[in-house]
Amino acid sequence: MYNLEKEVKMPQGDKSAYTDKQKRKAEHIEEGYEKRGISHKEAEKRAWATVNKQDGGGKKSGSGRANHKSD
User: What digits encode the pLDDT tens for the residues 32-61?
Assistant: First the structure.
């Protein structure tokens, strides 16, 4: 049978899950690509791909990143 439940996904292009620092980083990277002659749209895609690769995707500061020490 078919699974009628659908996965809830963040709309493509929604940057609300990113911190302000990640947004600034993407903007800076995007500007660098544009200076090298890459189109705005492509530069934006590459910039966010770079941020995702470096930071592991969008994260709110401190969300679920507690240190767990084993004794």
Answer: 999 999 999 999 999 999 999 988 877 766
What percent of the chain is helix, strand and coil (3-state, nearest 5)? 45, 0, 55
Assessment of whether the complete model's pTM goes beyond 0.85: no
Q: Where are the domains of the chain?
A: 20-55
Contacts for 6 with CB less than 8 Å, ≥ 6 apart: none
- The answer to whether the CB of 59 falls within 8 A of the CB of 17 is yes
* Separation in Å, CA 45 to CA 13, 28, 39, 51, 63: 10, 13, 10, 10, 25
